[in-house]
Every structure is written in structure tokens, then in C-alpha cells.
Amino acid sequence: MKNIERIIKVSKGEDLADLVLKNAKLVNVLSEEIYETDIAIIDDKIAGISKDYKGKEEIDLKGAYVTPSFIDGHVHLESSMLMPSEFAKLILASGTTTVIADPHEISNVMGLQGISFMREATKNLPLDVYMMLPSCVPATDLETSGVELNSYDLALLIDAPWVLGIAEMMNFPGVINCDKSVLSKIQLGIEKHKRVDGHAPNLSGKDLDAYIASGVASDHECTTPEEAVEKLRSGMHIMIREATGARDLEALIPVLKNYNTRKCMFVTDDRHPKHLTKHISRMVKKAVRLGVDPIKAIQTASLNTAEYFNLSNIGAIAPGYKADIAVFNDLQNFEPKMVFKNGKLIARDGKVTVDMTELKPPALRGSVNIKYLYKEDLQIKTPAQKKNIKTINVIPQQLITKLTVEPAKIENGLAVSDTEKDILKIAVIERHKATGNIGLGFVKGFGLKSGAIASTVAHDSHNMIVIGTNDDDMYYAAVELVKSQGGKIIVENGKTLAHLPLPFAGLMSDKPAEEVMAKINELENAAQKIGCKIADPFMSMAFLSLSVIPEIKITDKGLIDVNKFEVTDLFA
Fold first, then answer.
1. What is the CATH number for 139?
2. Which class for 435: exposed (0-12), middle (13-18), buried (19 or more C-beta within 10 A)?
3. At what angle do helices 513-529 and 84-92 cross, to 10 degrees?
4. DSSP single-letter state for residue 247
5. Which of 7, 170, 272, 409 sits at a 20 to 30 Å CA gap from 283?
């Protein structure tokens, strides 16, 4: 009662506010206008947005623009390879103060223990981290994950206030074909009046209608205006993605310029550390530069996301809302001069001003467990009379791959890498239960001339993935990742050129962001040294095992025809 009375008195101007931002140009995303006013703050809330407030502390903004701070509507924190505290340090200064995280990656490795780890590692941050419960662990039965999570498992956490619903339902064939285990997870979200996010690349027509009618409310896989508009027309919320490996904002600008934007929001999905320092703010800047109205762009980065997730107290600057605020000199560059979280200044001029050095991650068991590996396990024997191989073709900056049939290079009855034609061997080694499963195939587009690259980051089950020009280096790389309990590595002639250990679930480092970024630079330089022609080979490689995105992928169970949703023979 006392808190309510106090905020009322401050709102009326009878008591001093804790903080007043004077002479602000308020970008009001509720009324879609900009005007000059004062902003009174008490504790963690906004008390008023009228002129002539008085405060214990006053900051004269001298006409600077004030916006709600930004919200990332869909992100996998683990994809940054950083502890959440290091992730927070990078994004807070750019104006993002809330993220909706899907702990899908660590859940595929460690299940509920992984979700609990992420909660413990995020709950004391000066960053609001809400979570969606992973719906697809594993994503399909075409791969081996560390655990399986069913609706009964998810029901243990669905009522937690930091849980906002069910995360991206990638198994859209399971939805439209009425798979009971899939539908039970959607039903769980609906019964609890929480959101169910979607993931449905290229889904259209009556199948799309069925997917939406099931209760799935959003999608972040649109790559063309036509796809996004069809989904908007059917009532879907469109998450416009700008990830490290998949950047869709520019392609979807016509949607933001020509259609109702209130069902659009910005998300980053999967980003490496070097792309985190300019987070949602860079998406806003890019949208404005490409012709989107600044208020609409800011609204897409704040209010739209908050309202979609039923977060009624963030996403705008108005009485009773959380004092999550960004201050900009202009509405072109979107470089925040100040960022406030819960009414407290947390960043100024691109630097975080709060101390997070005491935030230590909880303990976590090792997760790289493979059956004893022999070099011969990587050999591909050629069947009689079969000389052609189905090959995965990488498309730069896209998650979608294409299938081609290529002549196999055969030596001593074995299909091997053909560096002259840029056809390289790829292996996915199961690393959770030591089953001995190894999927073998070929990939085109990486351009390696020697050596091998390997990683334990491989969506979605995160088995070990290795691409190489020869079996010796592929074997060496795999063994080294077992020793470090996960990571990313580049080798050549039996020697390590660069190595980033990721001992937390084989996904994350416990080192500072600066050290991780330095290691990533070493990996990129080493990749160029062995001939790689993809700017970010590890990001591209990580999605080659994602068996829910067309057209052809590979898991520990073999080559996957995504269109048919089945394992297919390597030899044509």
C-alpha cells in the first residue's frame, strides 16, 4: 500500500521522484509520436511523463531522444558461446535490457538440468531473461540428442513466472500430421495461457493454416516478403531475424514499410560474440536506413515484442511501466548515450557501468561421451556399380541447403574428399550416449584445400561434426575435442592450428568475452589458411545437422532428406 501511495504522490508532483530525466524528446510507441517532456522515475517504475517534475536526482537530456529499451524476442544464449553474464555485458550497452531465451541448445545436451543451469546463471543479471521451454528435444527422431523432453517434463516448469511459454515448434510436420506427443506440448502452452512459438520455413497454404490453427502464434523463418505477408494475413506474429548465419531483415523491409507492423518484432536467434555489441539497436538502425519509419522500427524492437509475450509492464515509456530506457542523440545512428534498467543507469556511451565480476556460473557435468573412435570408422565404402554421391551444397548466409548429385572420387574402393571439386567428407559423431552412431556424407562450398575443422556445436542435438580433406586430420580433430570436453578446432597435418574449448555442455566457454572473441579470430584466420572460402565456417557447419530445414542435412543417423523427413542413401 505504501509503495502505491508513494508512486501516486510522485506522479501528482507532490513528492520528489528518485530520478527525473529532464527535457527529453520522448518517442512514444503507444501514441506513435515524438514530443518533449520530463520523465519521473521512482524505484524501478516510471511515475509520470509530464513537464516540470522534480527529483532527488535530475539529468538534463537537452533534447536527446528517449525510447523504451529494446527486447530480443527469440535468442539462444548458448549460441554466443559465452556465459550469460558475459553475454549481458555485450548487449546491455547497446540498449537491450530484456531477452526471451530459448535454452534449446543446452536442453538437447542436458535436458532439464540444462534449463536449470541457464536459469541459475541468469537470474541475478541486470538483464531480464525470460525463457520459453524447448518444444523439440530432440528436434526430430532423425538424430540422437542427450535427452528427450516430453510434455510431462515441461509441465514441471511451465508455471514458473520466468517461463513465457513453449519455444519454437520446429517439428511442423508433426503438428500438421497430428503427432500426439507434439500436440501435447502445444496444448500445455495453451492451457496455461502462454505463448507457443513457431518455426516453419516455407510452410504455406492449408498446411500453414493448420499449423497456426493448432495454437502456434509466431515464426522467425521468413526469408521473403511473400512468405511473411502470407503468415501475417493468417494472424501470425513475424519475428524478423538478424542472426550471424541468417540475416533476413533487408529482405523483409518491404513488409515493415508497406504492411501493419504491429505483429512484427526483432530477434537475433543465434549470434556469435562479435555480432552482439551492436544488438537489436543495429537492427533498428538498419531498418531506419532502409526507409522504415523510426517510430515503427522502435516499436518493433520494444512494444510489439512485449505485448506478444504478455509482458504488460515493459516495452513503452508510460506511468506504471518499468523504467527500462535508452537515450539517443539522434534517430539515425542509434548509439545509446545512456541505458537505464529498472530506473538505474547501467550503461553510458557504449560501456556497461555495473559490476558483474562476482557472477559465477553453477557447476555442470561433462557432456562429450563418444564410443571409442577408430580412424576406420570415418571410411566410406563404395557399393558396387554406384559412382555418384548425394552432396550437401552450402548457400552463403542461409540455413537452407541444396542437394546435388556428384561423381564420387574413389580410392581403393573408398569414397574420399575431392578438393579440386570442393567436395569434402563430413561426419557427425554421436557424443551424448556413446552409441557409436556416425553419419557420413559429403558437403560442397567450404573450399578447404587441406586439414579439417570440427565442432561440438551442431544444431540441434549438438553431436560432434567434422569436415575435412582427409581421414587422419578428421580423426585427430575429433579426439582433441573429446579431450577438451567440447569446442571448435582447426587442424592441419596432425597439428592444431586454432582451438576454442567449450567445456560447458560442449557449447559455452567460461572465459571472458574478449578471450573468446580472440580465439574466434584465431579460428577464422586458421580457416583461411587451409583454404576455407566461407566467412564464418563454424556457423555454417553448425546448421548442416539441423534436420528440420530443407533441403538436405546430415545427422549421426545418416544423410537426411528434409523434404521427405527420412534418412536417405548417400549413393545415388
1. 3.20.20.140
2. middle
3. 90
4. B
5. 170
